[in-house]
Each structure stands twice: as C-alpha cells, then as structure tokens.
Amino acid sequence: MMVAQIRRQRWASLPSYSNGSMPQAPSRNRPELLLPIFVMRLMLMKPSARPTLGTTIHVEDQDVHILDGGNPHGIPVLLLHGCGSLAQEIFLPFDNSDFRIIAPDRPGYGLSTPLAPAERGPEGQSFWLERLLASLDLPEVRIVAHSIGSAAALHLAARRPDLVRGLFLISPCCAPVPSKPLIVLRSAVAPVVGPLIRQHVIGRWPAFFLDRGLRSSSFPNPLPSHLSDLPASHVVNPITIRTMADELRAFNRDMERLPDLPGDLPLHILFGMEDRVISPNWHIDWLCRKHPGPIVRLLEGVGHLPHHVVPGVAREMLCDLVEAFAQETELPRVKSIGSQAVAERVHADLQRR
What we know:
Elements: E1 5-10, H1 34-44, E2 55-59, E3 62-70, E4 76-80, H2 87-91, E5 100-104, H3 122-135, E6 141-146, H4 149-159, E7 164-170, H5 183-188, H6 193-202, H7 206-218, H8 232-235, H9 238-256, E8 267-272, H10 280-290, E9 295-300, H11 306-309, H12 311-326, H13 339-351
Parallel strand pairs: 1-9, 4-5, 4-6, 6-7, 7-8, 8-9
Antiparallel strand pairs: 2-3, 3-5
C-alpha cells in the first residue's frame, strides 16, 4: 500500500510579515480612525486595470473566456483558478511554459457566463469541465488547480479518469469544512440588503475589496507586485459575488459525495504552511484518505499563494507531474532539489518583481 510522500522546505530568504515588520492597524485600538483609513486607501487605489483578453468560445449555451499560452504544440495543461479570482491570475506563473497552457475563467467569474444556481458547486462544475474539454477537442489533460478550483478538478478526475492524466493542486480547498462567518459575503447575498451591498458598496469600490482579499491570501508574504495589476472590476462585481456564495453554499454537500480517486492518478500537492485562508493539515489528511499516494510539498514561511510567491517551485512541480504519467509502472518521487539552489532561485524570483 502506498503512502503519501510529504516533503517540507523552509524558505528563510522570503520576506515575511510574521516577524512583526508589518505595522498593526491603528484602528485595532482606535476605532475612530476606521473611516479616515478606509477613505485614504480608496484614494490611493489605482484605477481598475483592463482585463487580459483571450478567446471566447461557446460551450452549449454559455460563453467561456479562455487565455492560451505556452507552447501551442505542447502537452495540454488546464489551469483552474480559485474562488473570487479569474484566469488571468493563475495564468501568470505558467505563461512561459513548454506546455500548452489553457486557463478558462470559471463559470460566473471574469468574462464567462455563470452556470445555473443548482450547478455552481464543484460537482456541477465538473460536468462543465467535461463539456469544455469536448469543445476544445482535448481527449486528456493535466490539471493545475488552486484553492477551491481543486474541488471541481477532483470530481472530474474521480468520475472521468480517462480525461485527467494528473492533478497538481495548489493550496487545495477540497475537504468539507466547518462553517465560517464570512460576514461581508453573507451580507452581500442576504435578502433585501444584499443587492444594495453588491451594487453600491462592493461594486463601487472593487479595487479596495480585491486588494484586501489578495493581501489576506498572500500573508505572511508581501503581495507580489504583478497581482496589483489584476482588473478589480472583473474580479469583484455583483455577478461574481453571487457566484462565490452559491459555490460555497454547495461545497460541503458536493465534497462529501466525492468517491475515492483512482490509485494510479498522479496527484501532486503544494501547500504553504503559513496559509491563513485554509488549514493545510485538514485538507492534506482528507486527500490522503481519498488517494493512496499523493506527493505533498510543504513550504514553511509561505501563505495561500505559493504559485505567486515561489513560482519556480510551482513550475517545477508541474514538470514533475507531466513526467509522472510517463512512468506507468509506479508513482514517481519528487525530484530532489539542493536547498542552496532553491534559495538562490527564490531570491532571484523576488528580485525581478
């Protein structure tokens, strides 16, 4: 019986706010400063950037916006972004690749048409993925998925193993989770007041809410500069807020129904151990019960966005995943990396930003 291969790595060279270098918000002790701080941050926000436009295809009665990159003749790799994001975000670390990179806006995000409310959970989205692959004439793909985007990928792999030749899950949110307050999101979809909040609060200041969400996800790492160029009004708007709420509402129900994964499916997992969005151990333990031998890499000092903080590691793990399927006799081991070489590469990645 195979067991999970878990590898920890420390990233001492990464800048971090966990050592106290990040100043505490003065509003914590002085509530009267909340409004001035809020107004000042809004004034400093850049105007919303324009989205990167790709190709829009029609899948049955829905529009799907897709970004293509990498080598058009390479092995196809499908990228799935997380909750409250879009293709442009997850596309950034993988664009210059030897593989054919295909990154759709998931339904209801970016420029893609929402699914019917009853189909917005992970299981419903797995059927959307199946239709998308058929429209793209792709008989098989490797899938890279971030956060809650991993849930739909897992359902597709369990139901149609012939379509999925490997999964690379980054900070995967996949196990049923205890309920969280999510006060802003719940208020935005509440009866009566919800439409007002979506339209006149969140919809009016999307850059503020996007910046807040990105910094929370990136913690304890500084927000990578390239993420500040995401198109706020396309990431945060009334349609995406409604989609997020419906997706989260169906999440636990759909993931409780996920069957065990095929034992010969290459499954690679990347987690930052300082993730404050979800608990790495909670989701890793659950995945180990669903699959006999996932390969897990844990990065100390990294939060929920390892593919942006240490993109070189994410790209290397994608290469490992593609190589894994070539070894049909057994699941592969993660290639060893010298710690000094890794530190130098991470430092170089950060210097370029």
